[in-house]
Write a structure and sequence with these properties.
7 strands; 217 residues; alpha+beta; single chain; 6 helices
């Protein structure tokens, strides 16, 4: 866990610095857009005596592309920051709703590689698990990799948190996953993942169960 915390601290630092770099790019491109707009207004006011900048439209297109990429990069920084703080000390369990959303946000590349769409089912209330967030994320990621590989190019994968008595769980579902594959994946996840209470095969998926936070021993 000390290694995980070290990596988390380093990732958090890099995330913060990267966000600052993106903010500078955003401000610079925005200023360039302002100058283009000013030049266009000056051209209009001159009644054609001052010609329009030849590459105005192309520059505006490039600025829009830069701003879009910066916005995407800022979202990635936010997700990286959340991941970096997952191993922090003093965490009292984890919210499966948050963990599922974070994992899906971080797994876009995996889904694209396998030509799948990742969907999130939101539980009506906080679903609090006893294990730490990093322990939950490790389990969820292992299961998601298994499902996406078995279901590649075959539709959607849905992650649904829920609660059942003194257990909380996340169902990872894909209609293309047959019973044998679900059993095999559940078996591969059982026994070697800290924090995981049980991995169970479902029709078209697997259920990852965790101890509910605050339950009586």
């Amino acid at each position: 866990m000390d290694k995980a915390r070290f990596m988390g601290r380093m990732a958090a630092t890099l995330s913060h610095d990267l966000c600052n770099v993106l903010a500078t790019i955003q401000q610079a491109s925005g200023l360039l857009g302002d100058y283009l707009s000013l030049a266009r207004k000056e051209s209009l006011k001159s009644m054609g005596l001052r010609p329009k900048f030849k590459y105005n439209d192309k520059f505006e297109e490039i600025i829009a592309q830069v701003q879009s990429s910066v916005a995407r990069g800022q979202d990635m920084c936010e997700h990286l920051s959340h991941l970096a703080h997952s191993p922090d000390e003093g965490q009292d369990g984890s919210d499966l709703n948050f963990s599922v959303r974070l994992l899906v946000q971080l797994s876009g590349r995996i889904a694209k590689k396998h030509k799948l769409t990742l969907e999130v089912g939101q539980a009506p209330a906080a679903v609090l698990a006893e294990p730490s967030q990093i322990e939950v994320l490790v389990v969820l990621e292992a299961a998601l990799l298994g499902v996406t590989w078995r279901c590649r190019e075959q539709g959607n994968v849905r992650l649904e948190p829920g609660e059942d008595g003194d257990r909380v769980y996340v169902d990872i579902l894909c209609q293309a996953l047959d019973a044998g594959e679900a059993q095999s994946l559940a078996k591969s996840l059982t026994g070697d993942k800290p924090g995981l209470l049980a991995a169970e095969a479902l029709e078209g998926g697997v259920r990852l169960a965790f101890r509910k936070a605050g339950r009586e021993a």
